[in-house]
Amino acid sequence: MIQTLPVSSPAVSFPFQLTEQQHKALDAMWMFLQPAVTAALFLLVGFAGTGKLSIVFQLVKVLVSQGKRVVLSAPTNKAVGVLQRLALEKLKS
Questions:
Q1: 51 within 8 A of 59, measured Cβ to Cβ
Q2: Beta carbons within 8 Å of 61's beta carbon, 6+ residues apart
Q3: Which pTM value belongs to this model?
Q4: Which residues contact 69 (CB under 8 A, 6 or more apart)?
Q5: 59: Cβ contacts below 8 Å, ≥ 6 apart
Q6: C-alpha span between 67 and 47 (Å, rounded)
Q7: What does 13-74 look like in DSSP terms, one character per residue?
């Protein structure tokens, strides 16, 4: 059985209103993470400033609140630095 994203969880809180596309992306990422899904890859793409990292970090907060271990990666040192900085900011809040 595929679970829905626990939006009532305290870990799911956005300081902004999600767009329809962000809702769809968040739902798609959550579905991808379900045990019944056998896909090997999920690709999230979008222009700069569209909220990709914001929704990823909200999903990470949900997973961490459920006791899951999460690993994030990026293709360049600069992007890894951005992930590290945002992780420290967002996961503590």
A1: no
A2: 11, 12, 90, 91
A3: 0.69
A4: none
A5: 5, 26, 29, 30, 33
A6: 31
A7: --SSPPPHHHHHHHHHHHHHTSTT---S-------TTSSHHHHHHHHHHHHHHTT-------
Two structure tokens written together for 18: 């999600």
Query: In terms of C-beta density within 10 A (0-12 exposed, 13-18 middle, 19 or more buried), how is residue 62 classed?
Result: buried
> How far is Cα 16 from Cα 37, in angstroms, rounded to an integer?
30
CA distance 93 to 60: 13
Phi/psi region, residue 49 (left: phi>0; alpha: psi -120 to 50; beta: rest), is left
Provide the residue-wise pLDDT of the chain in tens; the chain has 93 residues: 456 666 555 555 656 677 888 888 888 888 888 888 788 888 888 888 888 887 888 888 888 888 888 888 877 888 788 788 877 776 665
State both tokens at 57.
Answer: 């970090």
- The angle that helices 20-32 and 52-65 make with each other, rounded to 10 degrees, is 40
